[in-house]
Structures are given as structure tokens and as C-alpha cells.
Amino acid sequence: MELLKQISESDATVRLEDSWKRRLSDEFSKPYMLELKKFLKAEKANGKSIFPKMSLIFNALNTTPFEKVKAVILGQDPYHGPGQAHGLCFSVPEGVAIPPSLLNIFQELRSDLKIEKPRHGNLTSWALQGVLLLNTVLTVEKSKAGSHHGKGWEIFTDQIIKLLDDRTDPLVFILWGSPAQKKESLLKNKNHLVLKAVHPSPLSAYRGFFGCRHFSKTNEFLKQAGKPEINWSLP
């Protein structure tokens, strides 16, 4: 973890939850991660704003320990507007305007489970129930969507998916959008349920996201597996 702490001397709060740290610590000494660290450090030295802030890069892992994961929602990269990204895919802090993709997620939630649109877009309650809200890329430059693709994060998140796929108990993997669906090749365990749809972006949601019923399908699978269902309502 020292590698990422060094990126910003002003942010000493970068941490990784113990159950993930035990399984991922070796990744931080590998060449791809060393190169990623150099890239992020250089970006900051050049005055570029990176989202989310360093202490929230691993928020998905810190909020949902390895043993508590019941389902995984895979996104792409973090929101690139100020104040939006907080380390959980598709989620924004309370008080921040709900982005269009998340509005479409809420629309599908209403259609699927009759849950009315929440008053905010903070999905932390899902994460606390065992939904790992993971982006395939964990950082982005301000106002430049996709700017940190191909810098190494995909290798790191591949490892997370492989670790979860190795679990013997049934999990649900929800893959929204082509970057997320590329991870399907890593999923070999037939115990798990894989659900796929186009990204909930307004550009694609009408091509198969609406009507996918992934929320109810997830709960049906968890129930059959003897696991508690997810309460998809937000407090």
C-alpha cells in the first residue's frame, strides 16, 4: 500500500480492507502497478485533477469485504465531474445531482421491483449488503471519460474478479456495458450467475438495459442459494 500512499503526500488515508489486502497485497509490487503508480504521480505533478480522491479509490473494496460479497455490479470508470466519484460504480454522494446513467438504473428498478426513484444517488446501502460496486478502471482525469483506460487498473480488477470466481458459494456477476462484459471470460465457475446488459447510459439503455430485470433476477438467485436477498431501496 505504500506505493499508492506515495502518490500524494497530502493524502495519507489510502487504505485497503484487511480481507482484500491479504489477497491483493502481492499486486502492488508487480510491474504493471509500479507503472500505474508512476503514471498517477506524474499526472498529479502536472496539475491534473484525478477522481475519486486517493482515499476513495478502493472504497468499493473497503465497504464490501471479500467474504461478504454476494453480488458484483461492474461499471466502466468513475464519473469525471467534480464531486461525483466516490469509489462505488454508478454511485454519487448525497447532495450531488443524480447522473443520467443512474437515473436509468432507478427507472429499471422501478419497472422491475416497483421501487420508486430514491431522493439521492448514494448506493452505499447496496455495498453494505454485499453488492461489490466495482469499476473496471478505478481512476479518471477530470472531464475526460476513459482517460485512465489501459494504464493498469484493468489488470488489478481482473484479479479481483478471479478471486471472486474462485469462491465455491454462488455469486451474481452483473455486467453492464462492453468493458464490464469483457470480464466474462474470467468467469469459469458454473456455480455463479452472470447477467449481462448494455450500459445504462442514455445512449444505449433502450437497446436492452431497460427490461433486463437484473435486480429481481439477482434476488431470485440469492434466495435459491439460501442467501439473504438485497434490499434495493435506498434509505
What does this structure look like?
With 235 residues, the chain is α/β, with parallel strands linked by helices. It is 33% helix and 10% strand. The protein has nine helices and six strands; from the N terminus they run H-H-H-E-H-E-H-H-E-E-H-E-H-E-H. It has helices at residues 2-5, 18-24, 31-45, 59-63, 100-113, 124-128, 153-165, 178-181, 214-224; strands at residues 50-51, 71-75, 131-135, 140-141, 172-176, 193-197. A four-stranded parallel β-sheet has the order 3-2-5-6. The protein has a two-stranded antiparallel sheet with strand order 1-4. Helix 8 links the parallel strand 5 and strand 6. The two termini are 33 Å apart. The model is unreliable at 3-12 (pLDDT under 50).
SSE layout and pairings?
Blueprint: H1 2-5, H2 18-24, H3 31-45, E1 50-51, H4 59-63, E2 71-75, H5 100-113, H6 124-128, E3 131-135, E4 140-141, H7 153-165, E5 172-176, H8 178-181, E6 193-197, H9 214-224
Parallel strand pairs: 2-3, 2-5, 5-6
Antiparallel strand pairs: 1-4
